[in-house]
Amino acid sequence: MLKIDEIWQQTCNILQHEVTAVSYDLWIKSLEPLDFNDGVLYLSTSSETAKQRVLKLHEQQIRTALTEIEPEIKDFVVLDPDEKENYLNKPVETKQEVNKCAPLCNFNPKYTFDNFVVGNSNKYVYAAARGVAEHPFNKINPLFIYGGVGLGKTHLLHAIGNYLIKNNPDLKVLYVTCEKFTHDYVESLKSSKAQANSEYREKYRSVDVLMVDDIQFISNKTGTQEEFFHTFNDLYQNQKQIIIASDRHPKEIASLEERLRSRFSMGLMQDIQIPDFETRLAILQKKAQQEHYSVDEDVINLIAERCDTNIRELEGMLSKVSFYASLLGKPSATLEDVNEALKDQISTTKQNLTADRIIDCVCKYFSITKEDLVGKKKNKEIVEPRQICMYLICDMLDLPLVSIGQIFGGRDHTTVIHAREKVAELIKENNRVKVTVNDLKSMANRT
Questions:
Q1: According to the CATH classification, is domain 123-272 in 3.30.160.100?
Q2: Beta strands 268-272 and 143-147: pairing type?
Q3: Which long-range contacts (CB under 8 A, 24 or more apart) does 97-104 make?
Q4: Which residue of 15, 63, 195, 271 has the lowest C-beta tally within 10 Å?
Q5: SS3 state of residue 333
Q6: How many CA atoms lie within 13 A of 31 on its CB side?
Q7: CA-to-CA distance for 114 and 155, rounded, in angstroms?
Q8: Could you tell me the strand order of the sheet in which 143-147 lies?
Q9: 8 A C-beta contact, residue 154 and residue 272
Q10: CATH 3.30.300.30 fits 4-101, yes or no
Q11: Which residues, including other chains, have CB under 8 Å from residue 214's CB and lie 6 or more apart?
Q12: What is the pLDDT of residues 217-258, one digit of tens each?
C-alpha cells in the first residue's frame, strides 16, 4: 500500500480538477494526512469551521477520489485541532478501538441537545428526540421526524447519536443517509459472492440503533424498499431502536410501498416546523456565541427578519456578514456590512424571481408538466399544485391578478383570488400544505 502522504497528494491531484480553485485553496489544500487505521484515513485541518465546510461541500468528492487511488481506504475522518490533539494523545489500544467503531459513530460533535435552540416550532419534536435518546427501545419506536429543508432534522439525529454513545458506549449506533443505504445495497448486489450480501445485512441488522436520514429518496427504488422493509422488520422484532428523518410525511413520499408507510406509522411521527422570529433570533445568537462572531444586535435582528424559512440559510447569512466584516478589519459587523455582504445574494434573488421560475419549481416538486399546471385539467393531482402556484405568485411577486390569470390559461382574476384565499386558509389548518409552501418558497429563492 502507498504511504498516506502519497495517497493524499494523488487525491489532491484529482480534486484540483473537480472543485473550484477558490474552494480548493480554502478548504482542500489545508487538509493534511494524519493516520490510516482499519480502513479509515484520518485527515487534520486548521479549524472547526474548515472541517465543517469540507464535509458539507466536498465529502463525497473526497471519498470517491480516495477510493479511486487506494481501494483499501473504506472511509475518511476529518479532525479539527482539538480532535487531532486528543487523537494523538490517546494510548494505542484506545486509538485502535476508536478507529474500529469510527464508521458507526460518525456523529458531528457540534450537534447536541444542549446547542439545539428550542422554540414553539420544534419543542415537541425535540421532546420526542430527547425521550428516545434517554430511553431507547421504549415506547417510541420507530421515531419518524419530518419537515422542510434546513430546519434541524439532521441536528436532532446527530444529537441522539451523540447522547447515546456518550451514555451507552456499548451500544452499536449507526447513522446513514438513505443514499448511503442504497449505495451499500447496490454494491452488495454487484458482487457475486454470497459473503458480500451477508456482510451488508450484518452491518445493518446487527446494530442496536439504526438512524436513516432523508428516507424520501427511497422513492421509486423497489429493491431498496424491499431490503429496507426486511431490515426494519428484523430490527423491530429484536426490539432495536429505529429513527427515521424525511422532508415530508410518509403519505407524501411518491411510490412508497404501503407496507413501509404502515411501518413508519407504528411509532411516533413528529413534524418540525418553520421557526418563528423569536426562535430565529435565538438561533443566530447561539451561532454567534459558538463561533465567536462579533456582531451588532441590529445585525442579528435584520438577518432574522430577512430569512424566515431555512436555518441553514439563516446561519449562512450570519457567517457571510461576519466574514465580510473581518476582511475589512472591523471589530464588529454592522448593518452596513449586512447590506454590503448580502446585497448580491438578495438582489440576484429578486431579479431572478419570476412567475416562470415559480411555475418550474412547482412542476418539479409535484412531478407534473407545465402544460398540465396552467391548462384546463381539474383532477385533484393538478388542481392543488395549480392553486398553490397561484398563491406563491401572488405572495412572492408584485403582479396584477389579471396578469396571473392570463398566465394560467386566461383564467378570471376571481379564480386567482379564490386560489390565494383557499391556500392561505389551508396553511393555517393543514401542516402538509404549510410545509409544501415553505419548501417551494425556499426552492424559488434558491434556484
A1: no
A2: parallel
A3: 99/37, 99/38, 99/40, 100/38, 102/38, 102/40, 102/75, 102/77, 103/39, 103/40, 103/74, 103/75, 104/172, 104/173, 104/174, 104/207
A4: 195
A5: strand
A6: 30
A7: 11
A8: 173-177, 209-213, 241-246, 143-147, 268-272
A9: no
A10: no
A11: 177, 178, 179, 245, 246, 247
A12: 998 888 999 999 999 999 999 999 999 999 888 988 878 899
Q: Going by CATH, does the domain composed of 277-343 fall within 1.10.8.60?
A: yes
Cell digits for 237? 422484532
The total number of residues written for the chain in this structure: 447
How, if at all, do strands 40-44 and 32-37 pair? Answer: antiparallel
Report the alpha-carbon distance of residue 87 to residue 180 in Å, rounded: 27
In DSSP terms, 43 is beta-bridged to: 33, 78
Where does the chain hold its CATH 3.30.300.180 domain(s)? Answer: 4-101
CA distance 266 to 346: 43
pLDDT digits over 95-149, tens only? 444 444 444 556 888 889 998 999 888 999 999 999 999 999 988 999 999 988 8
- In degrees and rounded to multiples of 5, residue 75 shows phi and psi of -160, 170
- The contacts of residue 386 (CB under 8 Å, 6+ apart) are 373, 374, 408, 419
What 3 state SS string does 10-45 have?
HHHHHHCCCCCHHHHHHHHCCCEEEEEECCEEEEEC
280 grid coordinates: 430565529
State yes or no: pLDDT of 48 exceeds 70: yes
Side-chain-side CA neighbours of 145 within 13 Å: the count stands at 30
Site of grid cell 409552501: 437
What is residue 310's three-state secondary structure?
coil
What tens digit of pLDDT does each residue of 396-407 get?
Answer: 886 778 889 989
Distance between the two ends of the chain, CA-based, in angstroms?
Answer: 44
| Whole-angstrom distance, CA of residue 175 vs CA of residue 343 | 38
Is residue 422 within 8 A of residue 414, CB to CB? The reply is: no
- Please compute Rg for the chain using Cα positions: 24
In CATH, the architecture of 353-446 is: Orthogonal Bundle (1.10)
Q: Which residues of the chain are in CATH 1.10.1750.10 domains?
A: 353-446
CB within 8 A of 74, min separation 6: which ones? 39, 40, 67, 103
**DSSP secondary structure string for all residues of 41-85:** EEEE-S-HHHHHHHHHHHHHHHHHHHHHH-TT--EEEEE-HHHHH
